[in-house]
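Holo prediction — pyridoxal-5'-phosphate.
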Amino acid sequence: MTKQIYLDYASTTPVDKAVAKEMCEYLSIDGQFGNPASNTHDFGMIAKLAVDEAREKVAQLIHADSREIVFTSGATESDNLAIKGAAFSYQNKGKHIITSNIEHKAVIDTCQYLESQGFDVTYLEADDKGQITPEQVRKAIRQDTILISIMAVNNELGTAYPLAEIGALARERKILFHVDAAQGVGKVNIDVAMMNIDLLSLSAHKIYGPKGIGALYVRRKPKIKLVPLIHGGGHEGGYRSGTLATHQIVGLGEACQLMFDKQTIFLKHVTALREIFLEKLSSLSHIIINTPLENSYPGIVNITFKGIDGEALIAFLHKMAVSMGSACNSASVEPSFVLTAIGLSQEDAHSSIRFSFGQYTTKKEVIFAAETVLESVNKLRGLSPRWQECSDV
Ligand SMILES: *Cc1c(COP(=O)(O)O)cnc(C)c1O
């Protein structure tokens, strides 16, 4: 079996070899395996230094102070800690939360849980490209609004959001602003200070780091109080107890440093790939590009191939790894809620595929992928009498 071409970088990324190498230094008896909280000996102190250094590298990527970084198990936990933590901490000020209907499940399900606990949530409705405007946010703000949660980049569409404008609104009204930036860090400009972001979730495995580690940025000035999800030894300023996973944290730090160093080259690379891909597909009729090309992270493109069953197309595209939406949804027969939320019919949502490119994707792979897609869509449409009927009219 030949290896498939990996075009599912929005789902996860391979760990950069330099990152993996660095992580290995913090595991075995020959390496630095100490507990960073053990400050009575060298083993612990050396591990703590490595954690401190990683904290600096994470902070650097989002223009934060290293004291504002809380390590978690990933963006799902960070989203939970930010949203539940803030909701339970500030509920005496109000019980209203604003988010959108195209957020990641880690945000939407958390908000739905809070609704069951007596909170009131407004889910702003995204437009046909998955966009949310600052005006929509402004109109939804109430006296009792305590939190606004809007993502940096949409995981299914690539749509990038107006964080600075929303942050300014939130700050003006003294409402906390949380950003799920799992798909955004290193890919779009993020400056927590300039954008008035109070809480920001990120994950290592979306940026060539390991799975199972992430961080939550928690603003220090003004200081934000969060009710922790995990109680225990009081690690991470009490926000998140549990022995720090040194090797994982080192991996996250290294991944952030690499994204910081390579950002310009990386973005140029994925931009060129998406252009080539779309150029190759331009002869195809009856397709809808669901990604706003002008206002998105260029490593993602979501396309509806009218009249085609997405699962049949994926079967034709067996030489490449693509998905019909987010990884968390593809096990179910229901089409992506994001695609139906932006107005696609159930049928069109079932005819949509997300292609996502990354640092190891080559031009050759993208050209091959586009040619295969072109050929497969034409073949499938040729096989479908129903399609021939509707394309005649
Ligand atoms: C991947 C992802 C998450 C979940 O991150 P994990 O680290 O896998 O828990 C949350 N939000 C968005 C936007 C994502 O893309």
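READOUT: Residues 246-281 form the longest helix (36 residues).
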